[in-house]
Each structure stands twice: as C-alpha cells, then as structure tokens.
Amino acid sequence: MFDKVELSVSSYDTAWVAMVPCPNSPPAPFFPQCVNWLLDNQLRDGSWGLPNRDPFLVKDALLSTLACILPLKQWGVGEEQVNKGLFFIESNIAAATDEKQVSPIGFDIIFPAMIEYAKNLDLHIPMGATNIDALFQKRELELRRGYGSNLEGKRTYLAYVSEGLGKSQDWEMVLKYQRKNGSLFNSPSTTAAAFTHLQNSGCLSYLHSLLDKFGDAVPTVYPLDIYTRLCMVDSLERLGIDRHFRKEIKSVLDETYRYWLQGEEDIFLDTATCAMAFRILRVNGYDVSSDPFTRLSEDHFSSYLGGYVQDIRSSNTGNEDLLKLAVEDFNICQSIHRKELKYLARWVIESRLDKLKFARQKLAYCYFSGAATLFSPELSDARISWAKNGVLTTVVDDFFDIGGSEEELVNLIQLVEKWDVNVSTDCCSEKVEIIFSALHSTICEIGDKAFTWQGRNVISHIIDIWLNLLKSMLKEAEWLRDKSVPSMDEYMTNGYVSFALGPIVLPALYFAGPKISEEIVGTPEIHYLYELMSSCGRLLNDIRSFKRESEEGKLNAVSLCIIHGGGVFTEEEAIKELKSIIGSKRRELLKLVLQEKGSVVPRACKDFFWKMIKVLHLFYMKDDGFTSNEMINAVNAVIEEPIVLNEM
C-alpha cells in the first residue's frame, strides 16, 4: 500500500474528460474510452458517483450525475442512461438548495453552469422554475461575493472551478496555475476544461498521462502520492501500529524530506499537504524550517481552496486491513496488560501496601497511565517500573500528608539514606517498616532489571531520585506545620519534585530501549525535561485541587499566586495565569523532545516525558481525576474491554 497509492476514480472528473472534443473532428470525443466508462458505470438509482453514499452527500451525486449526462447527450449516445439520470435529478433536486447538505467545492457555480450547458444541448433538466431561479441567484451571489483583502484567494478559487465559468473565464489567467505536469491544481476536470478552451499541449499531456495510468476513468486529484502517503503515516501513528512499519515510514519520510528541501510544488502549492508534511517530519525528528510558511502570503493560506485535497480519500488510507491490524494489535497488547495488572495486584498484597488504610488504592490508575502510552509488548519492564513506582509515590504522598507522624517521616528518610538497615530494629513503626521494605525491594528489583538492559548498576541513581522526593515532601509538611508562606519560586522549585513524577518516569527510561550512560543521566537536558514535565503536572494538579486544599488549610500554586499578587489576582485570574504558564512549559517541552541538534538524550527516552504530559492532561481534564473515580471508564476501556471490529 505504501509502494502503490491507489486512488478511487471520479465519475465527475471522468465526465469532464469525456466532454473534450477531438480538435480535428469536433463531433467526436477525444477520449472515447471515458464515454464508454460512463455508459458502463451508472448506479442502479440512475445516479453516478459514490455507491452507498451518505444521505448528506446528495449534492455530490447531483453534480456527478448532471456532469455524466452532458457528454452522453453531447456525443449522442446512452439515451437510456440519460433518461435514468434525469429521473434521479428530478427526484432529488430539492437537495440542490438544501443548506443541510454537504456542498462540494464550487457547487453553487458549477451546477447552474451545467444546467445552462444542458440547455445549449437541447437537454431539458426536469426542475421547477423556482429551483432554477434559486440556483442562478445563488451563483450570482457567489461570483460577486467579496473576499475582503483575499483577492488571490478569490482568483485561485475561481480558477479551480473554471469548468463552471466556461467562455466567461479568463483562461490565459488560469494558465498561471499550471503545474510542471501540465495540470491545473492536479485536477482532471479543471485541466480538461482548460484544454477544451486553450488546446494547451501541457494540459493534453497531463490528460494522456492520467488515462495511461488509470485506464478508462480518472480520479478527482492526481498526483496525490505525497499527501496520501503522509495520510497513511498519520493513520498508522494514530492507530498505534506505526512500530510495525518503521522501515516503510522512514522511506516515505526520507522521500518527503527530500521533496521539502527541493521545494517540490506538490508540497508547497497545497497548504494541507505542506502543513501535514511539516508536522509529521518535525514530530519524527527531521530538521525542517517553518520558513516556507512565512514566505507564503496570508492570502495563500486563507485561499478558498485551502486544504481541498483533505476531502479526497485514497482507498489505502482508510483501508479495512489497517483497521483490522490495529484492533488485533490492541487486543494482543491488552491481554498482556491484563496479566501484568494481575501480577501487580499480587505485588501490592505481598508488599502489605493494602494494610496501609490511610493510603489511596490507585493501582489501576497507576498502571493505566503507563499502559495507555507505553503499550507495546516490549516495554513490559518499563510499564511495571512505572506502575510500581506510581503506587509507591501515592502511598508515600498520603503518608506525608495524613498517615505519618513527624518522627515517622524523618525515620523513613533516614532509612533510605542509610539503605542497608535492619528493618526489625531501625524502623520506628509498622507503617514505616511496610513502606521502606516495599521501597527497598522494588528499587533493588528495578535495579537488577535495569542492569540487564544497561549493563551497569543504577540502584544508587534510583535511590537518589526517591530521596529527592521524600525530602521535598518533608519540606511541604514543615511548611504546613509552621504555617509558612513560601514565595512562588520556592514553592515551584520544591513543588515540581514533590509532585512525584521523578520515581515514575526517570527509572523507566532505563527500559526505553537505548543505552543511557551515567553522563547522559546527569546532563542538564534530562533534568530540564523532568522539570518542565513535573512543573506542568504540579500546576495542573493545583488548579484542580485548589478548592479542596484551601478547605484543608493547604497552600498551593493558585493560593500563592493570589497571596503574592498584591491583591491584583482573583481566583479566576490566578488560574488563567497558571494555565498560560502550563501552555508555555508544554511548548518548551515539546520543542526539547523534538530537538535533534545538540541533544544527547535518545528520542525514545524523551518521548516518555511527552507521554506523561498527555496522561496528565487526561487526568486533570475536568477535575483531579487521579483522586476521584472519574477515570475508571477510561481505565476499563484500555485494560479490560477488548475491541470487536464489527461493533465499530
């Protein structure tokens, strides 16, 4: 499917090619094979166009049907097909003025023009005078409609719908839109109309090339290879099965990148293709500049044609085989996820974490946050590390908030600092003993697995991550105890650590695939990625939990913004300000993730930070989704409910 882009044929465009007269003998068609195709491809209801069409696409069927009737009448063939087509038009003409119907580009100009052309052929279109008047009035309005400052957009649009203007069109002006392949906008219908009026050799060459490739009929747009292949890449990435097509995707993106550097018109003359190429190349690490967008005028982007090819679906991009593969892949991954979740449930009990009644039981949420983003089978170790540390950070957070005394909090930190201790004598309480034992065994287990992946001991690094978290949580507990009011900078410097994403994300990097040395782990780049991700999470959490924490007497970013705002900030203004900061940090994080030049952190590792950001926005979309039970349906959909294709 990557190698051979399959485009479905268009009866409308084929009809316009069929109307082209032979220059030397005007009563004969230049492309009789297209006429024959029209005779053989009328639908049972008398129309031409899409079979099994949507009820809101009747205008498209009317346009195609009238277009197909015209060449049959013009060349004096297919009387039966003509009569059936006229009956379809008569039966459905009300749709032509129905505002609820989806209107094909240029319908209001082209459809009335074809009615006029039919009159010239002595072909009576069975529709009332009221309908005809309404259509022609709408045509005049469309032709006279002001486009503001966007004159180029209007010229481009009118050039694209040239078949609806006939002799009134400035055809020499239209030729300025001719592409290297001889076409106008890669559109067979527009090009056929231009050749009929101009006898341009480039147009003829393009039409011949179409029929050499497609046989007796033509598609709506050709070539569409770059756009269609990019659509396939986009579909595979959105379906989550792109990992099975890495070689093919790289080939497409390498080719697109080459075209981008060469300034290929098939990319830069269509804004939809240009935008998609830019986004997909950037996301996949290609160094592409946004300069082409600044060079394009505002008029170009607001052109009436902007993105018209988005309506043209290749038979490849919506292919049912891809959907079947995606569903099968999802269900295979889900079966693995269910087994992992059962294992984790046993681990919670074996670690006695269920005995800690003060702690929220959020295993399903912790595992979901990993499984929904790190879903492929080979990332099992990363998911397990992510989920176990997620459960432990939730327990520790509740321990520092409500479950532990000051003595117990300090004792837990001292135990982690010493590490090799006698839990039966060094722990001041059963709660501390349960938490430290779970921490110790989990960190050692993750360290052992990481040694297999990385070939070096990383346990001391994981201990340091946990110590940083515990000390930041202790500081928050001290602020609450002493009723201290930290500055916003003090709060955020501590708060992004206490948000507790460090133990979840950072150890999981060891299981992302690439080898990451101690030097890479210690770089400012990784720390900045972590800081940006965690700061977004802290602010998202604080916005959603502000009312609850205020009632509990706790300070957070919202209340501090109000306190330090000197009476300027209301609650709504403070939240607006923090949302702006989140947006800025999110953009900076994405920039770092996509950056190739000067980056020492492997892309597979950087992706973990971005995936966590997406999880955070999901959890805090409406409220504090982690603390409440709002997310349970999403959790079940990902982990417990297989997809059945026929239900889709």
From TrEMBL:
Q: Where is the Terpene synthase N-terminal domain?
A: 170-302
- What EC number(s) would the UniProt record show? 4.2.3.19
Listed A to Z, the keywords are:
Lyase, Magnesium, Metal-binding
- Look up the record and name the cofactor or cofactors this protein needs: Mg(2+)
Cellular component GO terms held in the UniProt record: chloroplast
GO BP annotations of the record are: gibberellin biosynthetic process
Tell me which domain of life the UniProt entry assigns to the organism this sequence originates from: Eukaryota
Q: Which GO terms describe its molecular function?
A: ent-kaurene synthase activity; magnesium ion binding
Segments forming domain Terpene synthase metal-binding: 352-587
Q: What is this protein called?
A: ent-kaurene synthase
| Source organism (scientific name) | Fagus sylvatica (Beechnut)
